[in-house]
Amino acid sequence: MDCGEGMQRQFLSMGLGLNRKTTIAITHLHGDHVIGILGLLQTMALSQRTLPVTIIGPSKLKDWLEFTFETIGIGLTFDLNFIYAKEGIVLNEKEYSIKCIRTVHSTESYGYLFAEKERPGRFYPEKALELGVPEGRKWSILQHGRPVFVRGKKILPSMVMGKKRAGRKIGYSGDTRPAERLVKFYTCSDVLIFDSTFSFKDRRRAEERMHSTSYEAALLAKRARVGMLILTHFSARYRSVLPLLKEARSIFPNTVAAKDGMVLEIPQKE
Amino acid sequence: MDCGEGMQRQFLSMGLGLNRKTTIAITHLHGDHVIGILGLLQTMALSQRTLPVTIIGPSKLKDWLEFTFETIGIGLTFDLNFIYAKEGIVLNEKEYSIKCIRTVHSTESYGYLFAEKERPGRFYPEKALELGVPEGRKWSILQHGRPVFVRGKKILPSMVMGKKRAGRKIGYSGDTRPAERLVKFYTCSDVLIFDSTFSFKDRRRAEERMHSTSYEAALLAKRARVGMLILTHFSARYRSVLPLLKEARSIFPNTVAAKDGMVLEIPQKE
Questions:
Q1: In this structure, which of A37, A120, B6, B180 has its CB flanked by the most CB atoms within 10 Å?
Q2: How confident is residue B200, by pLDDT bands cut at 50, 70 and 90?
Q3: At B24, which helix (H) or strand (E)?
Q4: What are the domain boundaries of chain B?
Q5: Cβ–Cβ of A72/B64 closer than 8 Å?
Q6: Cβ contacts (< 8 Å) between B5 and chain A: which residues?
Q7: Nearest to A209 by CA among A109, A102, A59, A100
Q8: Residue of A nearest to B10 (CA)
Q9: Element (H or E) spanning B192, and its range?
Q10: Do A35 and B34 touch (CB under 8 A)?
């Protein structure tokens, strides 16, 4: 999600492979969110990537990439699948979907919601054995959601498995003012990564520049009942982000400040 | 000269100011030579730069920058003076000139020669006093190359000053195969920064990709009688550049391998 300048360096240092399934979602066409895509794609081409790359973003992004590739002569070794960002589900894969919402910024801008699909419920071996289903292929069939027959008796997956488990949801706002519709869009996300460019004392500036304060991010996170808030996109004017973090935590305690290369584990749901 | 991705970081860490006289010379439009210009110009705009920036490069660079600024909405706070690269002197300032030559690469590509103008010769106070020129304004006039009159006698600058001193010359090849015309163009440069993408054993690859080996760079430096050779643009395939450096030094001993942030002092000529 978004590619600031130099992101290929981070990408490589995090051990993310250059020839793995990759979807790049760009919120909007400001330089600090998009310049890094050129170097990343070029490095992928230099490493002879063959898998296509999916790119989601405003339609102008496609124009700019095409013009740039033509001018700069980056000979891509793989296809680009371009998906125009628009409100609603823009990508629907077997294991997850990606949903867009227009955000409130100085240019056409989108927020993203990355949502894992529901996972099957927990399998209870003792229940299966009790019903006479022997360990082996029939267990696997049940775990995959289909019924089996044991001595003429139909055994349903629901008889040996718990309830379906919800997938995880990660929200990412890009640059935006807070808005009621964003509360709804990000409701019950496990993690919300939100624009926190300014501190409370610079709230006027946040309005002018169409960004959010950390305080506003926290209010939104609280109202959307998210699991965790990650503040990001801090203005270079602040030597330390600690005051911004404190302001947010006064409203929404489970808040952290994003850092380059930060890794967070988001527990799966039971 | 050239702007790879992330160059703004280097620019800032080297203490180069964002609002000082700046000329950017781009050799050609391959991503690793040009992507960084976007972030640099954007950061200059964010810091409210007011002085114009001069950019020298192939004409397509101007098209790409214009398209990019329009799409990405980098609101520049300063003017860009664009100079199309073409053979000959492209910029002539009071203290230096910049000269271009077409190089031999897979796209329209230029090498640059940054040449300081001649400086006035050394001023000899004892000679001036001997001729009766009192210390003060008249010394300054002589030092600036104009005659003065002392008791009706004309004193010429040449009577109190040494010979004019040659300016320094720095050559930069960008990406290129070696070529006879480059030998001539870079003759007697104090420093020549030259494409050394490959080692001797990969010389076939150097031909195919239209780059040079460190050995070829050294041969050219020797024939052009430059003061010092700086190898640069090493292929990522080499873990160490030491073998490339050794190959070059076997031909041209005064060779160094460029490093990020390297600072070299080029002594003024007497």
A1: A37
A2: very high
A3: strand B22-25
A4: 1-85, 86-119+165-270, 125-159
A5: yes
A6: 5-6, 8, 35-36, 38-39
A7: A109
A8: A6
A9: strand B191-195
A10: no
Residues of B in contact with A29 (CB under 8 A): 71-73
- According to CATH, what is the number of the domain B86-119+165-270? 3.60.15.10
Q: What is the DSSP string of A120-142?
A: PPPB-HHHHHHTT--SSHHHHHH
Q: Which amino acid is at B143?
A: Q
Which residues of B are annotated as catalytic? 32
pTM of the model: 0.83
Beta carbons of B81 and B21 less than 8 angstroms apart? no
**pLDDT digit string, tens, across residues B40-95:** 999 999 899 999 999 999 999 999 999 999 888 778 999 999 999 999 999 999 99
Task: Note whether A73 contacts B38, CB cutoff 8 Å.
Answer: no
pLDDT band of residue A119 (cuts 50, 70, 90) is confident
Is residue A100 within a helix (H) or strand (E), and if so which, with residue range? strand A96-102
Q: Enumerate the residues of chain A whose CB falls inside 8 A of the CB of residue B34.
A: 72
Cα separation, B157 vs A218, in Å, equals 73
Q: Is B149 exposed, middle or buried (0-12, 13-18, 19+ CB in 10 A)?
A: exposed
For this structure, is A190 an active site residue? no
A250 Cβ neighbours under 8 A, 6+ residues apart: A215, A218
